[in-house]
Design brief:
CATH architecture of the largest domain: 3-Layer(aba) Sandwich
Oligomer: single chain
Radius of gyration: 20 Å
Strand content: 15-25%
GO molecular function: UDP-N-acetylglucosamine 2-epimerase activity
Number of helices: 16
Family: Belongs to the UDP-N-acetylglucosamine 2-epimerase family.
Strand order of the largest sheet: 3-2-1-4-5-6-7
Enzyme class: isomerase
Keywords: Isomerase
InterPro entries: UDP_GlcNAc_Epimerase_2_dom, WecB-like
Shape: globular
CATH superfamily of the largest domain: Glycogen Phosphorylase B
Length: 373
């Protein structure tokens, strides 16, 4: 029996997390697959952290990261590097995940070499080409080139059908981020950041804040932080933890609005392992991140999404998340409800996770077998 040669391509921390279960599943099925991993290293340090956690040794490392890199530079370096990898390995299928510039570059490189493309986490749409930017466009451009669309939810599949894609090429799999979480959450986890170990997660209502989106920098982010500050000032049983994004503009806003507050902890960014375990211990999450909207509901944590649009509406529909926008008063009102109304809190905390059964990687592998063997 011929084996399918699969090249798994990723370049950032979120991609690595979500591709790790697939990398493991492919390696465990050597009867049907010959697989190799290529990292572009669009991110470097954050990517390496995840590779270490999941014990993944890339077969190819393009190491394209440069300080101050532009989207054009990332695209060109990734595309050029992938050409040599494809010519050497000669894969039957290239797998990409999500919405980064590496994803689009990987899909384009595959197309140029007439290699089949599998898009993991296909079909997410916000409806605004510039929000999230450039991710919304990356997903849509990748979709045009894709042979197998691995959609995490029915909503994602419906988006693809509405855009005219062949239903026989769309597979609902769940989200691999849920697979990954099952490997890393430890109820007895101890943080290297001692300030986190000193927080009483049982008695305090700990809000985990993440904010970094390009489109939120400026007044929207000031609104978000001001609302969180007000909630922290008025509720003494609240603690806020904000792992500050490395962007200097984001840090400037955070320090301006949070400095001097004893119950707001501004800490350095966390690796995947401590971050997910922190999320599992907290009371609720305020975020403009995409992946966190999937992970937090699977841990029973209500999510306030501080964006104007989200490409992950399933959490909103299921009741695990609320789209709060970037108006400070609206965010404060929603926070106040979750902090002080136990019934409303429980409705969100106990809502059914819409993002799958934790077996997404196996569903993807099975679909590939069905179509290519």
């Amino acid at each position: 029996m011929n084996k399918v040669k699969v090249l798994v391509v990723f370049g950032t921390r979120p991609e690595a997390v979500k591709m790790a279960p697939i990398v493991k599943a492919l390696k465990n099925d050597e009867e049907h697959f010959i697989s190799k991993v290529c990292v572009t290293a669009q991110h470097r340090d954050m990517l390496d952290q995840v590779l270490k956690i999941f014990d993944i040794e890339p077969d190819y490392d393009l190491n394209i990261f440069q300080s101050g890199q532009t989207l054009t530079q990332i695209t060109c370096r990734a595309l050029s590097g992938l050409e040599g990898v494809i010519e050497e390995f000669k894969p039957d299928l290239i797998l990409v995940q999500g919405d980064t510039t590496t994803v689009f570059s990987g899909a384009l490189a595959a197309f140029y070499h007439q290699v089949k493309i599998g898009h993991v986490e296909a079909g997410l749409r916000s409806g605004n080409l510039y929000s999230p930017y450039p991710e919304e466009a990356n997903r849509m451009l990748t979709g045009v080139l894709t042979d197998f669309h691995f959609a995490p939810t029915q909503t994602s599949k419906n988006n693809l059908l509405r855009e005219g894609y062949d239903e026989n090429k769309i597979f609902i799999t769940g989200n691999t981020s849920i697979d990954a979480l099952g490997w890393v959450i430890d109820k007895n986890y101890k943080f290297s950041e001692e300030a986190l170990n000193n927080i009483d997660f049982e008695k305090k209502k700990v809000i985990l804040l993440t904010a970094h989106r390009r489109e939120n920098i400026g007044e929207p982010m000031e609104n978000i932080f001001s609302a969180v500050r007000r909630a922290a000032e008025e509720n003494k049983d609240v603690e806020v933890i904000y792992p500050m994004h490395l962007n200097p503009k984001v840090r400037e806003i955070a320090r301006k609005l949070f400095d001097g507050m004893e119950n707001v902890h501004l800490i350095e960014p966390l690796d995947y392992l401590p971050f997910t375990n922190l999320m599992s211990k907290c009371y609720l999450v305020v975020t403009d991140s995409g992946g966190v909207q999937e992970e937090a509901p699977s841990l029973g944590k209500p999510v306030l999404v501080v964006r104007k649009e989200t490409e992950r509406p399933e959490g909103i529909s299921a009741g695990t998340a609320k789209l709060a926008g970037t108006d400070g008063q609206v965010i404060y009102n929603e926070l106040n409800i979750l902090i002080n109304n136990e019934e409303e809190y429980k409705k969100m905390a106990n809502a059914v996770n819409p993002y799958g059964d934790g077996m997404a990687a196996m569903h993807i592998i099975d679909a590939i077998k069905k179509k290519m063997l």
